[in-house]
């Protein structure tokens, strides 16, 4: 239960999946009676993003263009963003600070502060390149470690991500796992067609969508890919048997989930995977990378393949496209499993965490006040 009138300052990245998480959670918290200030960084809000937030009651948007800690040479912007966030705090006067990044947890917030570890550069590098991160990430490491150590609580969306943070940054003061969630009512399983779907940038080595597209060449089903297909260097990939849908808003993507029989996402690195949850809620059979986070969430409800094995990915595709009974069983299992990861459950878990931290802070202040109170009367022997 969210305490009525609870004021939450939440940060958000506008250029990745954290945006979807932040807006969904902020809207759910506001509907439950909280007031949320959403402070955005990374890039200006797009028109569709403004449409997402403009009708949410008790939500205030504070927009900035500061670079994020995982971007190239961001530290001047990170420091400036910290000063800006403190002015937002002075204006909004939150009861809780909820950071979806690391570095700013080291600021003197004077209210409980949680950090949510959605991903990190060091664990991403290890997963994608199979080797320890290079020394050029040392400033990032120091900033993240300092932030994690300063937070009142560190939250991760899976045990796998929590373990990764502890591996790369050392013991953490207090952690908990709160799964991301979605509203199941937004998704439906429509009449399935013999078509597969994958969502992500084609050149993203972590999501590994490019491997899916290349494996689709020998399929007798077409593959649709929703996401940017043009590489940052300007090159554009065209592959046989692949229909590139481009970047789609969440609303425009839902019908493609609804009619796709298979969702393929053999990621090398994915701490949670909102697109997988969306596909499962839409009744897709899942073909996933065999990594710790996805096993944790979907074991028994998906077909797993080794992300670096092109033949394994192709063989997994063949299994799901040729075996209707397997496809049906996995689709049913994934949809049932997906109901565990509801936005309602996510909101309740965060509300409980906020209440716990506020109670602990209140007790600390009471104890401190008692210690500092002047004693009256004569001394006791």
TrEMBL record:
Record flagged with keyword Transferase: yes
Keywords: Transferase
Membrane keyword on record: no
PANTHER family per the UniProt record, alphabetical: GLYCOSYLTRANSFERASE WBBK-RELATED
The species this protein was found in: Thiohalomonas denitrificans
InterPro entries per UniProt: Glyco_trans_4-like_N
Domain Glycosyltransferase subfamily 4-like N-terminal residue range list: 15-184
SUPFAM superfamilies: UDP-Glycosyltransferase/glycogen phosphorylase
Domain of life: Bacteria
Protein name as it appears in the record: Glycosyltransferase involved in cell wall bisynthesis
GO biological process: lipopolysaccharide biosynthetic process
Any one GO MF annotation of this record: glycosyltransferase activity
């Amino acid at each position: 239960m969210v305490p009525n009138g609870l004021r939450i300052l939440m940060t958000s990245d506008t250029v990745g999946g954290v945006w979807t998480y932040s807006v969904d959670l902020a809207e759910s918290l506001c509907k439950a009676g909280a007031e949320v200030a959403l402070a955005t960084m990374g890039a200006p809000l797009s028109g569709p993003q403004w449409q997402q937030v403009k009708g949410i009651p008790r939500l205030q948007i504070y927009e900035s263009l500061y670079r994020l800690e995982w971007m190239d040479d961001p530290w001047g912007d990170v420091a400036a963003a910290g000063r800006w966030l403190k002015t937002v705090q002075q204006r909004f006067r939150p009861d809780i600070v909820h950071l979806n990044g690391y570095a700013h947890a080291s600021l003197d917030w004077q209210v409980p502060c949680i950090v949510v570890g959605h991903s990190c550069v060091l664990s991403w590098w290890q997963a994608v390149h199979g080797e320890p991160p290079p020394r050029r990430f040392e400033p990032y490491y120091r900033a993240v470690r300092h932030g994690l150590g300063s937070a009142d609580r560190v939250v991760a969306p899976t045990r796998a991500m929590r373990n990764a943070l502890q591996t790369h940054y050392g013991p953490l003061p207090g952690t908990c796992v709160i799964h991301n969630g979605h509203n199941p009512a937004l998704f439906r399983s429509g009449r399935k067609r013999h078509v597969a779907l994958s969502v992500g940038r084609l050149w993203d080595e972590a999501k590994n969508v490019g491997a899916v597209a290349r494996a689709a060449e020998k399929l007798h089903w077409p593959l649709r890919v929703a996401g940017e297909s043009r590489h940052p260097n300007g090159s554009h990939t065209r592959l046989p048997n692949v229909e590139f849908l481009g970047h789609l808003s969440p609303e425009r993507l839902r019908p493609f989930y609804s009619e796709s029989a298979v969702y393929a996402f053999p990621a090398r690195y994915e701490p949670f995977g909102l697109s997988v949850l969306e596909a499962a809620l839409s009744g897709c059979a899942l073909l996933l990378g065999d990594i710790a986070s996805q096993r944790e969430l979907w074991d028994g409800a998906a077909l797993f393949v080794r992300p670096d094995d092109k033949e394994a990915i192709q063989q997994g595709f063949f299994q799901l496209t040729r075996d209707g009974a397997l496809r049906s069983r996995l689709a049913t299992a994934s949809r049932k499993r997906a109901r565990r990861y509801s936005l309602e459950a996510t909101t309740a878990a965060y509300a409980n965490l906020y209440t716990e931290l506020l109670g602990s802070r209140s007790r600390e202040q009471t104890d401190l006040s008692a210690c500092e109170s002047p004693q009256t009367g004569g001394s006791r022997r």
